[in-house]
Amino acid sequence: MNWKLKGMLQRALSHLPYGSWMHFHLQRRFGGLRDFNREFDVKLSDWTIMLRRLGEAGFDISGKRLFEIGSGWYPTFPLACYLGGAARVTTVDLNRHMRPGLLRACAERLGENLSTLCAATGADEASVRARHSKLIEVLGHGGDLASATSGVIDYRAPADATRTGLEDGQIDCIFSNSVLEHVPLAVIGAMFAEARRILDTDGVMFHSVNCGDHYAYVDRSINQLNYLRFSDEQWNRWNNAFLYQNRLRAHVFIEQAEAAGFEILLNTAKASDLRLSQLASMPVHPQFSAIPAERLCITSIDFIARKSVNSEAAAGIIEDQNLNPGA
Asked: What terms describe the molecular function in GO for this protein (predicted)?
């Protein structure tokens, strides 16, 4: 499908009274939700990568209090964390996207991958299977996510990740998967400031960001750097509420985390030969000219950040900036 056509269609739907309903059904029939098993498998793979990276940083989700930004259509990450032994998983979304049918499909598909869950978490297989059995039973009788997980998963939507309402130090790990690329820059800063507040003393956050042009997944005539051809004004013709892309480069997310008082433990951002070649062969809008090619071409990043010992000093700087944005 031509990417410009998709962008204009989504932009038009975003202004219609039942646009969200129509967009969901178009996704089920023609979009990413058409092949549920394939999409689920990608998400589960991403979850196992997150667990591995957190493990390498010395963090184990067992018995921990987790917080997900961006619940999405179905809760792969929260359910996998619940089955793997997390004590609590709060998951929030700006809009209420989750669907009962997809929730049940997700739970059932997880049942086919319990060995993967056990391998990733080190959890006892008998305990994982017992939790999964109850999950399927309660969902099958029309129960909601909270009741099906004995209150472990708390789904909040609509909810604002910059104002969670949680007390200070209530969370051990905050995470997101392919979410931050859809959030305006100012909101990312506010999210990180709130993350620092609600994280416990040794708390960490993990974010996986796909900062490439998402239209390249539906239009094979373009690559993931295509949107760098346009100015902000030009890009707004195709940017829309259903697929908002901030076009921020990978290093910006690191800079925002550090400014909010975090120490970076992991940063996977790396320029590839393919992306450098693609960038060299295309025109780039002058507004990106100050960014070195080695940074501009990066289209994905995973990073882990820990509260810095100097985070309280950083807190005052961030709060001053929020109160006086022109300062």
From this structure: methyltransferase activity
